[in-house]
Amino acid sequence: MSLSGKERRILAEIELALEREDPELAKRVAAINRIESDDKSLPKAYGERLRTWVLVHVWMIFAVCGLVIVLLLVAAVTT
Fold first, then answer.
1. Distance from first CA to last CA of the chain, Å, rounded?
2. Domain residue ranges in the chain
3. What are phi and psi of 22, to 5 degrees?
4. Which is deepest, 7, 26, 38, 66, by most CB within 10 Å?
């Protein structure tokens, strides 16, 4: 489903505002969009490293949450 002209205009205004307010974030969003669209302007290794980085951090979050749950259970049992 494509965007209407008004929606495209609003999206362009939001993008311009983002570029003005936080150029670093705008660069990161653009890089993610290029990776997701399989743009060849970024080396494939960069996309793979980014995906690996995200995957490692997601698993670390799960591990920490699991550890917190285990520690809470141990604390509940011992009191």
1. 57
2. 1-42, 47-79
3. -145, 80
4. 26
